[in-house]
């Protein structure tokens, strides 16, 4: 067979790119493959068995459409590109995630998709709930919180909160991280799959969780509305409110759903109830709504039936896997606890060893200090002995000095007594001199008074004599040659002699008084000098007594 013949027998293929929430894969598909062949290939590659929740989505002309399983891939209206891109996403949502999601991969894919929808604000979540959900996402990614490893800023590159929440509150990235970390620290010991399940259990209670919204118009009035399809039924919303439906149709209350061109009809189980008709702008939208309704209704009915053998096996395997993981987690937790205890014991031993080494070092230092202190004490003892000898010698000298001072003190006392006696005698002499001085002053005053009286009497006598002379001998001035006058002149001369004699006595008396005064002053000066000498001697004796007292 030729090489050309072999090439002709090889089937033709085309490439597809499968994009999951966190990865991309490329496959080569045969031209004749149907949508289910490609879907099964992707599920096998992922190891996914719960395939009924998922589908392959693509975008054509701005509209998201799901790949049909029963038609050939290339026969469907798909993008003309190489490779052809499909998104592997959850198409239908469980009513209770904890009961219906059996495989870990299924749970992980749902977790990633719901998390992305919350961050992209396709599902509304309150700020408080977003922080709690973010803490479970961090636990699933990083494991248990370790303050030594998870330092501030370790969440800087993770997208954990919707931008709407970040804009709503004026908080810094560090403050948001602090709030998330506070919850994250409380999740210690929770495994990754358990953290993801806790995330989904909180998310499934949100109003917009698992709802596919489509714009529609009601018959007749053509009012703009939103139609939502989820695992519980069909809901009608006003255009501005996606939280609270105006009308709901549970799957259990719907008898039939029909689709014809742009019209969608919902027939309730109660035949007497009104039939609801809605219109969409495009036939493709109607068909998409119809597909989602059929798929969600089938899953709704399936949940209420006895599980198939495959589901039972999967649940059994899931239970076994959970039990095995639980035991493994317990074992790991015990090992971790033992390791932590061993590390704590090691740290305690290292601390104790360091403490003992420190104590030994301190003991060695204390020993060295003791030796140095002993040497210093020996040296001090020698010095003290020498000082004692010196003190004994000083004591003997001090005793001799004391005896000498006692003798000196006795002499000083005797001298002091004599000096005090001399002082008393000097004081008595001073008193006598003062009295004598007063007496002499009084005598001098009397003498001065007598002298003054004598002089006054002399003046009066002279005046009287002159008066008498003028009266008795008025011609004597004119006739000086008159002989009787010689006799009178003789008599007058006698009177003058008497007066001159009296003047001589007064002068002598004044001279004696002045001499006695000068003698008295000289004696007083000498006595004062003697008093000063006595005071100096007494002061010197007092200083000697004070010094003698200090030495004693």
UniProtKB/TrEMBL annotation:
Signal peptide: none
Keywords: Cell membrane, Cell projection, Coiled coil, Cytoplasm, Membrane, Nucleus, Phosphoprotein, Ubl conjugation
Subcellular location: Cell membrane; Cell projection; Cytoplasm; Nucleus
Topological category with respect to the lipid bilayer: Peripheral membrane protein
Domain FERM: 14-304
Binding site for a 1,2-diacyl-sn-glycero-3-phospho-(1D-myo-inositol): 68-71, 287
GO MF term set: actin binding
Coiled-coil intervals: 311-464, 517-544
Keyword Cytoplasm part of the UniProt annotation: yes
GO cellular component: cell projection; cytoplasm; nucleus; plasma membrane
Keyword Transmembrane carried by entry: no
Classification via SMART domains: B41 (SM00295), FERM_C (SM01196)
Protein name: Merlin
Protein source organism: Notiomystis cincta
Gene that this sequence comes from: Nf2_0
